[in-house]
Amino acid sequence: MNAVAAKTPGPGRPKDLEKRAAILQAAKQLFPQNGFEGTSMDMIAATAGVSKLTVYSHFTDKESLFGEAVREKCAEQMPDALFDVDVSGPLREQLTAIARAFFALATSSESIALNRLLTAGAGSSAKLAQIFWEAGPQRVQRDFANFLAREVEAGQLEIDDVPRAASQFFCLLKGELHARQLCGCSGATFQPGEVDRHIAATVDLFIRAYATKGQAAVSR
C-alpha cells in the first residue's frame, strides 16, 4: 500500500498546470483585445474557467501576468530551438527561418494591437512598456545576438558589435510592411510573395554585410 502511494503523483499538480495554461491563454487573448486597463483579473478568470483566487495563486498581479503572457507568445513563435546553431548547415537557411518567425510574430494581430496600446498610452504606461520590452523584444534580440555570437566564433560571420547587428536585422525585417500595419493603412494585408521577397532581401543584405568572404560566396 505504501509502495503504491509513493508512486502516485502529488494531487492536483497536472490540474494546476492546466489551469496555469488556461490563464495564460485567456491573458494572451484579452490583453491585445481590451488593452491592459480594460482587462481585469476577473475577466481573465472567467475566460480561463477558474476562480480569481486561482489566478492570483499563479501570478502575483496583473503586471506579472501581462509579462508572462508576452513571454509565452514570443516563445510560441520563436522557441529556443530556433536559435540553435548548425555550423554544418547553410547560414542563409538559418537566418531565413529566424526572419520568418520574427516577421510573423511582429505582424501578428496581437503584436500590432499591443504596440498601438503602448504607443497610445506612452506617457502613462512607461512601466508597462518596460515590462513588454523586457518580456518580448529584448528576450528575442538577446537570443538572436547569442546565435550571431556563436556564428562569429564558428567563423561564419564577422561582426564587431553583435548586439547592434541583431538590432539592425530585426529593424530591417520590420521595414515598411510593419510600419504600414501600425499606421492602419488599408493596403497593409500582405501577399505571401511580397513577404517572401522582403525576407529574402533582408537576409541577403545582412549576409553581404556580415558574412565572411567564403560564407558569403556559399550563401549566394
From TrEMBL:
Keywords: DNA-binding, Transcription, Transcription regulation. It comes from the Bacteria. PANTHER family: HTH-TYPE TRANSCRIPTIONAL DUAL REGULATOR CECR (PTHR30055:SF146), HTH-TYPE TRANSCRIPTIONAL REGULATOR RUTR (PTHR30055). Residues 40-59 bind DNA. This is Transcriptional regulator, TetR family. GO terms for molecular function: DNA-binding transcription factor activity; transcription cis-regulatory region binding. It holds the Pfam family TetR_N. Gene3D superfamilies: Homeodomain-like, Tetracycline Repressor, domain 2. The keyword DNA-binding applies. InterPro entries: Homeodomain-like_sf, HTH-type_TetR-like_transc_reg, HTH_TetR, Tet_transcr_reg_TetR-rel_C_sf, TetR_C_Proteobacteria. Residues 17-77 form the HTH tetR-type domain.
